[in-house]
Protein 1
Amino acid sequence: MNQSLAQKAVNFALLGNWKNARDTNKLILQDSPHDIEALNRLSKAYFELGNISSAKSSIKKTLKLDPYNQIALKCWEKWKNVKKADKNPSGKMSAELFLEEPGKTKIVRLIHPCDKPVIAKLDCGDIVYENIKGQRISIVTDSDTYIGKLPDDISIRIKKLIRLGYKYTFSIKSVSNNEIKVFIREADRPEHFQNQPSFSSEKIDYNPYTAPELIHEKPTIVSNEDDESETQGSDSQQFSNGIES
C-alpha cells in the first residue's frame, strides 16, 4: 500500500474534500485492488458526494473480501435503505469544537429519533439546528429535515435561555441505528449574565483523601467591591427569574 497516498486520502476526508478523497483512493486501488481501508474510504467518499449506488457497490466489495469488517458492516447497515442520491447538506463542525467545557457544553441523547433512512445520512460532526415549537425543541438539518427532539427538561431550559439572549450551536456527536446524540455548545452569553453558565457542571467539593477536620471550616472572603457584588446579585436574580418563569 502506498502510505503517502493513503495519508493524503485520509487528510482529504478530514477536510471534507470528498472529490479528491475519492480520486486518491481510486489511485490506491489501481495498484492494490484488495486494499480494505481504501475501499472503505472510497465508499464514504462516494456517499458524501451523493453517489449512493457506487458507495453500496464499494461496500459490497469490502464485505466480499472481509465479511466481518466492522466498518463495512456498519456502513451497510446505515446505507442499505438509502435510495435518494443527494449530497449530505450539513456542514461539518471542527473536531476542536467538540472539546467539553464545564457549564458551556452538554451532550444530549435525542428522544423520538427520525427514521433510519434519515439517520443513515447523519455523521459525527454534522452541524444541525434547533427548531422551537411549543415547549419542545426539535433538532433539524439545514434543509429542515427532522432528526429528533431534546428531552423536555433541556428543551425548556434552552428555550428560556435563548429568550434571555443566549445563543447555541448544535452538532451530531454520535449516531447509531437507534440513538442520536447531539453536542450543544453555548456560543454567546449576554454581557449581564457573564457569570451564569448555561448548564450545571459537576464540582468536586473536596479531595476524599483530605482529612475531614481540614475541610469543615471555610475561610470567609470579604470583598470591598460592594457595587460589583450588588450588580452581580441583581443579574443572578434576573437570570433565576428568567429560568423559573
Note: The beta strands are 105-109, 127-133, 136-140, 146-149, 167-175, 180-188.
Protein 2
Amino acid sequence: MTPSMLNRTLAGIRRAVPSIASLQVNEHGRVAGRYYGANISSVFQPWRAPASEEMVAVEACARSYSKKGEGLSPWQHFADTPVDSDLVNFDRLCRTVHVLNYFTAADNTHPLVLNVDARLLQAVPERHGEFFGKLLSLLGVSPENIFIEIRTIHQFDLSHLRQILASYRKSGFAVAVNAEGNLHARALAELLRPELLMLDAMGFSPDELRRQVSSLASSNVKIAVKRIETIEMANAVRSAGADWVQGYFFDQPCITVVDKLAAAA
C-alpha cells in the first residue's frame, strides 16, 4: 500500500470509527495511535514450525514509544484502571494499528495473531468479533487471516468462554486459547476445541515441558509453546510434537519482521 493509499485508508477509518480517530503515520512510516498520552505502535514476533523453523504465523504486540525512551509494553498503564470502556477502546486501537502495520507492509500469507485479554472479553457481554470484523472489511482484510489469542484465567466461566469462541468463529476468525498448567490445558482442549492451544514454557524444566506437551497429544488440538529461551527447551518441544513454537531462542519481537516479509514477497 502506497503512503497516499494508507493515508486515505486512515481517513476512512477515522470517519467510520471515531473512538480510534487518533491513528497517524509516524516518521518511520508506521501506523501509530495516541491514547492517554502514549504513542502506540507495533512489534512482531514469528511463530515457527519446531523442526524446520519455518515461519507459520506472526504475533503482534503493542509498544508505547516516547522520543527519549525505548518501546515498552503499554498494558501496565491500563492494568489498574477501573473503567472497562477505556480498556475496550484501547484494545480496539491496538488491533487496528497492528493490522495496518502488518497487512499494508507485505502481501503475505502468514496468519496474524492478535491478543485479547480476559478482562476485555468480560467487559463486552456479547457479539465478540463483530466490531473487529467490520473494521477489517474497511481494510480489505479477511478474518480468516487472523488468529484471536484469548488469554484466559482459571476463574473464567467455561460456558461464557465457549460462547465467546463461537462468536469469534461466526465472524470468521480462528481462535487460540492460552492455558495455565496441564490440567487447565486439557480441560480447555476437551471442552473448547480451539484451533490452537497455547502453553507457556516459562517456569518448566525441559523434561516437565516435554511431558506436558506429550500428555496433550491425544487431544487432537494443535499445540503452540511460547517463551522458549534455550536450546534444551526447543529440543524438548520438538521431541514432544508441538506444532508451533515461539521465543527469544528463535526471534525477538521487532518491527522489522514485516519488512523482511515484504522483501521476500
Note: The longest strand covers residues 38-48.
Protein 3
Amino acid sequence: MTIAKDGLKFLLPALGLGIAFLALGWWPAAVPFILLALAFGFFFRDPRRAVPADPGLIVSPADGKVLAVESLDGLPELPELPGRSPLTRITIFLSLLDVHLTRAPLAGAVRETRYTPGQFLPAFREEAGRVNESNAIVLDGPRTTVHIKQIVGVAARRIKVFVRAGQRVERGEKIGLMYFGSRVELTLPPSCRVRVEPGAKVKGGMTVIAEETS
C-alpha cells in the first residue's frame, strides 16, 4: 500500500516509538504506538486509480459521500458564468475512513488558488461550506471551467495544496490533501450534465460525476 508522503511525518514517529519500546521489551507501551502508526498508514493511503479515458467526462475530486447537488445563481470566483443559467454545486463529505487526497476533475490549467481562513465546524453541516477554513482552486479545461473548494472540519485543521496558478494538470492528478475529516465542493457550469445524486459514494479520480455536453 502506498502512503502519501505528507503522512510520513505522522506515521514514522509513531512507528519509531513503537519499535523502540518493543526493543526494550515494554510491549504495553509499544502497542498503542504501533496501532497509531497503522491508523496513520490507513488514513494517508494513496491508492492507484483507473481514470476514465473519455475526455468529456468529469471525475470526482474526492472520495466520500455526496451530501448535496444544488443549483447556484452565481459564484464570485467564476464571474463569467452567472447570468447564463444556474451553476451546479456538488458537495462531497469525507469521513475519517475515506482517502483524503483531492484530485483534478478534468485536465486543464490552474487559474488560481485562494486560501480563506475560517471556523472549524463539523464538515457535514450545511454552513461549513460558507464559514469554515478553505482553499479554492479554479481550473480551466479546454471547454469547461470548474471551481474546487477544499473545506476542513472539526477534526481537520490543515489543507495542503499541491498546485499553483499557471500549472497544467491531468484529469485524476493529485492536487491537494486535507487532514482528518473534511468536505469538497465542486461547482460546474451549465454546460455540464450531473451524473450523481445525494447519497452516492464516489471515488476521487475514478467515479464519473458529470459530463460536458457542449
Note: The chain has two domains: 5-43, 57-212.
